[in-house]
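new request in #modeling-help
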Amino acid sequence: MTAFPASIGRRRELGYGAAGIALVTAVWFILTYPFFVEVTEHRTYVSTGEMHTVRDPVTGEILKIERPYYSNVREVRRSALVNPPALDTPENTLRDAWELLTTRGPNPNLLEHIAYSCLRILLGFVISCSIAIPLGVAMGLFPRLRATIAPVVSFLRPLPSISWVPLAMIWLGAGELQKLAIVFMGSFSAALIYTLEATLKVDPNLIRAALNLGVGPQDLLIRVLLPAALPNILSGLKVVIAIAWTCVISAEIVGTQVGLGSLIWTSKETSNTAAVLVGMTCISSVVLLLDALFERLERRLVPWMFVGAQKEDA
Amino acid sequence: MSAAAVLQADCVTHRYGGITALRQIDLTIAEREFLVMLGPSGCGKSTLLNLFAGFEQPSEGRVLLRGDPIAKVEPRCGVVFQNYALFPWLTVAQNIAFGPSIKGIRSPEKIANLIRSVGIEGFGDLYPNQLSGGMKQRVALARTLANDPEVLLCDEPFAAVDAMTRQVLQEELSRIATSEAKTVLFITHSIDEAILLADRIVVLSSRPGRVKESLPNPLQRPRTQNMLLEPESRELKQYIWRKVREEVLMSLQDSSRAS
Amino acid sequence: MTVCRAESRREHYGAIRRWLTGVVVLGRNEMLRKGTAGSAFEERRVHRREEMSQSRGETSHPRRTRSGFWIQCVGILLLATPLPNCSRGDEPSSSAEPVELERVVYAGSAWYGHAPVWAGQRLGIFRKHGFQIDRRAFGGSADRINALIADNATFASLGEVAMLAAMASERRDFYWVGSQNIAPGNEGLVSVGVDSVEQLAGRKIALYQNTSVHLTVALLLRQAGLDIRRDVEVLNAPDSAVVDLVRSGEADAGAIWEPFFSDLRALPNARVLGTDQDTSIYHRYRTMTGPDVLCASRSWVDADPERAKRLFRAYFEAVEWAQAHPVQLTEIVLAEVRQPRAAVEAALHNFRWIGWNGQRAMLSNARMFGQAQEVSELLVELGRIRRVPSFRDWTVADWYWE
């Protein structure tokens, strides 16, 4: 390994990435393509019209019913390595996705699912950050505050969002507030910790230099500390928004018919694997999109992190 | 206290974390004097500079600026840091203009003059992390100068810069100190640098720090690199080195005893 | 906020061992309670600990720590394989019992519909027919159907809606064995501040979606000229949450089954707008929208149909006992379930248990087959399933005509 880490250039990276996706799609295709011919035997009901009279065991009424007969049917069926509902063929899944996308009826269509989920998650994320960021900065500045709140944060941090569902339902019912609360609890401690670390990592010499140049204590926070901590805060937030999206199912498990989490959970109850895959794909795509948007935002807000060193001499 | 004294440390003792960094140290810096402090590691040079800057308060004794005690961070004593401490979110020009902009003063011509005088013309719109070490130190110097401090406190500012750039920067600092008539307190490990820059050289003892020796520099301004090769300079260097060496050995003994 | 310090390799290894023992104990308890193997979460924690210990650098005693660690892992895996366990309500055992009992797994929950199995175990009915029942709790009907299809359970009582949904997805590996109870009047729609079903237009109704109450409400609304998809807002909530939503005023009405139905009726200003007995399905087929049905794993049944019939004869014997002894049944249910006596009695009062001889009538067009057709059509309309399944193909109704 003469050069480490080695790199192959952006073009080639995209090329290999596309090949990776093609490979996964090919594997999916092979797994679900009905290569095999399966002969299954199962019964089917045969209606002979042979009527009998029986008495209803509960009400005692006389009923005229047909005697059931069954015949064994040999079904010659094509089957694949993996069959529905475990995994459906790519074309069927795409067809289901298209149907879900374009349904106009009273059942919500995919865009509505996406929109509702996005609104809930983003709103929860924004509320969470607007409390976590000031609190994190304050904790960074005041060690006594930090020490006081630290045990509470340690307790909250490992709790998965779904563990908040029972309490949230008891305290807030099953409306939108409950969902926002779940997203909030799922993302709050992560945002707090990232902000705290970003504040603690600020070079103390910057603070000293600023004081030395005449900055007063009130200006210190806004003109020095926040800009210095901002790059680390933003990169932490990028992680937190992905964390907030992992709360989508816990948030929508109760109290709604619309939303990607609700779509996935409902489809599980009716064995609709295609819809589950569609839901998962949407979540993934939305997070990737948000990532890209966030990166754009970062370039705007912290341009100095993205300029390369020109390293002029002396 | 002489009327021309700008900075004075009056029987200062400073302790932190269970160690005594300075013990009853007395130091006076006169108007327009370029004072260089030399000493082994850990002898308290940076501590004394921090006290002069107002970053800390002495445990005992007083530090005075023109007779007034330094009770808080003092913008009149501008500090040049070893690791530059430039604000990464501001461009070079904005960094330099930072001090005046706090006071609400906007003077683009002054900024431009400073940029010219430290020799970084054309780099005003770059961000600090696009610059090399030497350039960054020039910006740091310009930023401190933009605030018009009475005293410059330099904490080993050229230690992180490569040797050739360092020579250039030394000459520039010397030139600016003369032209702007600044009083300078300069900390270094390098005896050559001390001889090149100092009007007076102070050697500090090992921890706890006291003034071991204070000698005026026989070489006159303006000093050049060639003057370092003169026999006078060599003698001076040997003398200083003997003094410093004693302290270095003592501080090594102390640290081996402590571990 | 916490920092982990391990002074020496030994201390660290001891900590790992203590922790893994805890995991093993936890895992075993979990498995006994739920009848599933150790969770993926615990496995991930094991892997994380492994990473942590490796990042500390096992250089001084690599062989000892590594082999010890792998032994622990193997121990965990061995413990995680399903073992026969002791379930509640074991049959009375006599020490001189050398007879080999067939072990079968029943997937159930705390719902009263499982009472025949509880009774059958306590009375030794299954033992008499040569079976030992291993009871495992599965939360929802969909989970139980999945368990049957994967042959993780032998037979189960579950909600008809989940069964029809599985049929609609062409999942063939289970049988619809019978219809063992009906319990009309155990679920209904209760409102606070709304006087009639028509006035629910534009309001919010809390219910447990994709279950029988969902269909009941859909029918009640349709009978009043409203469309559940367009004219009301449905708030999905499980069990007790329905009561909480109506009580807090967040929902104008709620629909759920016992015992929460009683809780709903007990709210101030509560008005029962309708029960499952008011639906068109009840009028036509004398049953509710989503009664309990009895299903079994196809592979288990096909492996030995005579054995299967023996098991279900035992089951239906317990069912017939339940119908004949309501008082003792109440006692058995109270012993299994933590509910107040009054609620249990009220709910069981509505139950009609139907044994082997009654299955002929139940599995016919006049009853469950007709009902299943209508329920399937309703599910298609609500967009829950794609098409109406030919559900008769999953049945074994000819058993009851032998």
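bot summary: Chain C touches chain A through 56 residues (CB under 8 Å).
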